[in-house]
Amino acid sequence: MSSGQSIFGPRYLALSIGIILAAMTIGFEGLAVTTVAPAIATFSELLQKDYLPTQPD
């Protein structure tokens, strides 16, 4: 296999980097949602029970 046929060869380099970056972005986004979800659930629960102070009109 010549260097032109490799997935990191000049012909496919941009495509390979784009696929890797897309997979990394999806992974980081998944980790962020998993990290923030408990805080959002707690905040939503507090809103439903009126534990949070409201702003005066």
- Helix percent reads 55-70%
H/E element order: H
Could you describe the largest sheet, including whether it forms a barrel? Answer: none
Strand content range: under 5%
Shape: rod-shaped
Rounded to an integer in angstroms, the radius of gyration calculated over CA atoms is 23 Å
- Decide which structural class fits the backbone: mainly alpha
Calculate the mean pLDDT score and round it.
84
What does this structure look like?
63% of the residues lie in helices and 0% in strands. It is built from 1 helix and no strands.
List the helices and strands and how they pair.
Elements: H1 13-48
Short description:
The chain is mainly alpha-helical and 57 residues long.
What attributes does this structure have?
about 55 residues, about 65% helix, mainly alpha
